[in-house]
Task: structure prediction
Amino acid sequence: MSGPLSVVTGGASGIGRAVVDSLLRAGRPALILDRDAAALDAALAAAPPDADLAGAAVDISDAAQVARALEEALDGRPVCALVNNAGVAIERPFRETSVELFRAMLDVNVLGAVITAQTCLPLLERNGGGAIVNVASVSGLRGNYGRAAYGASKGALLTLTQVMATELAAENIRVNAVCPGPVETPLVKSVHTASATDQWRRLTPQGRYAAPQEIADAILWLLSEQASFVTGAALAVDGGFLSAGLRGAVDAA
Ligand SMILES: NC(=O)c1ccc[n+]([C@@H]2O[C@H](COP(=O)([O-])OP(=O)(O)OC[C@H]3O[C@@H](n4cnc5c(N)ncnc54)[C@H](O)[C@@H]3O)[C@@H](O)[C@H]2O)c1
Result:
């Protein structure tokens, strides 16, 4: 491997996998950090033979694991982009959300992004700058039922995005967030009940879940030079969920 590459956490599944596939289609090198070793092996095996793709099975909430993985996989190779995408979700009312559950959610969704970004910073600087995208959620901006721990973690990630954008601009590093609405991924299948699925469809003006590629396309744009003056933004990729008020056409259809 040579030349600057993109690091994608949680790149073995769902949205992260779509980001990795997009990078590879564009001929860009990538490194996946994902704790699911079997899914990681499958993603690596599915890559075209000439793809410049590496992977490390790590838990991003463990700073020592992340540092070791980047050192072993990259050996000082510069990084031009980081997608903090790995995340965990649960649907649980606030009253029933234990402190342990809050901690576990914050550990991965917030501290995992902090750890990976801090570990990648010297490698981004070696590249002369670059771009970071944090994958948040519409649940970081709305009081969605059952999202106390998940929503709080994504809200924290949005504030973190703004602070990182402010502090890192001088180093030529842009930092943005995407806020996906509902997306067809393994994570959603494990969290959304039938009634939640029905509600998401009804409350989303476009009336459907996104494909992972639709979120990946927005992430790739934020990473690109076309977004060269965009930093500190939270881009909703949500079929209109955050904008919606009174409903008409989709319900009536
Ligand atoms: N699917 C949705 O509807 C939706 C909506 C809004 C936001 N998001 C966010 O998008 C991101 C990706 O979600 P997805 O739906 O593609 O989920 P997914 O479960 O398909 O993929 C997530 C990947 O992250 C990995 N991962 C989880 N915890 C990890 C850890 N501690 N260390 C390393 N890897 C870890 C998993 O192994 C998995 O491969 C998450 O941050 C999620 O919160 C998803």
Summary: The chain has one domain: 5-241. The two ends are 52 Å apart (CA to CA). The pocket of nicotinamide-adenine-dinucleotide is lined by residues 9-10, 12-16, 33-36, 39, 59-61, 85-89, 108, 112, 135, 137, 180, 182-183, 185-188 (CB under 6 Å).
